[in-house]
Design brief:
Helix content: 40-55%
Distance between the termini: 40 Å
Radius of gyration: 19 Å
Number of strands: 12
Structural class: alpha/beta
Length: 328
Amino acid sequence: MKSLVTGATGFLGSAVMRCLLSHGHDVRVLARPNSDRRNLHNHAVEITEGDLRDITSLQRAVQGCDHVFHVAADYRLWVPDPSTMHDINVQGSRALIIAAHEAGVKKIVYTSSVAALGFHTDGTPATEDTPVDPTLIHGHYKRSKYQAEQMVRQLTNDHQLPLVIVNPSTPIGPYDIRPTPTGRIVIDTLAGRMPAYVNTGLNIAHVDDIATGHLLACQHGKIGERYILGGDNMTLLQILQTIDAITEKKRKRVNIPIPVMLPLAWLMEKVALITNKEPRATLDSIHMAKKLMYFSSEKAERELGYQHRPALAALQDAVKWFQDNNYC
């Protein structure tokens, strides 16, 4: 069977690609002409060049495919021009899904995000059914993923598409070549650049477990349903201390209140407009940090057979890969 994977040059997409290859899939990947293709090296995949903003290239990419795993997204916490992110994450997703439907693809797995889900203000883990308050969605990335999932769900209902949605939490592990914002936290911690923290929390999962969840969603997921693919809920301080323990380095850290971080993030964004380099903290990221972003994968475990290893293993693999590849 032939499967198309978008985003295979990136972190999560490459993990999905490797998972499919290991299970005997004939894999085609969509890659932009000038993309960094290190994650494709030494893998027997067919490469078709294209872009989510180029409908013709999408129509070409889906031809002859049994399955489509749409993992690609513009994942940045700061963008000077948010319209580009919207064009890729929302309009590009729409164009690809329509092209896949018209080509007769048997199953589409759309990679959304927990960013598109609701959360509980008391820190208890949210589920697929936790209500979403759109006014509490901070940041262009989160808004684009929320809008994209709403669009995908509407398309699926209107056209009875063979589509399943997965909502990964925070992936951690090897081959984070860019790296992702979370990968930068690991690198900065290894380099001793995280002397402070804010009181927030994340759901940490090994990227390979999330990738396996994509395959399980294709095999067992119910059409029109969505499934959280996550791991362990941890505070940011616990994450930093776990990395310290892995590297056997003890570091003292201070807690910085959110109100103190806001003006610092504002300043970092102003500098970024001049340097065109993504700031280490943004106003949106600090606003997001006000809540504990904890989630439950119980539905995926029950209906898909999804399993996840401890967050410690994910962080260990990430630390080793970043160190072996001279990121710190």
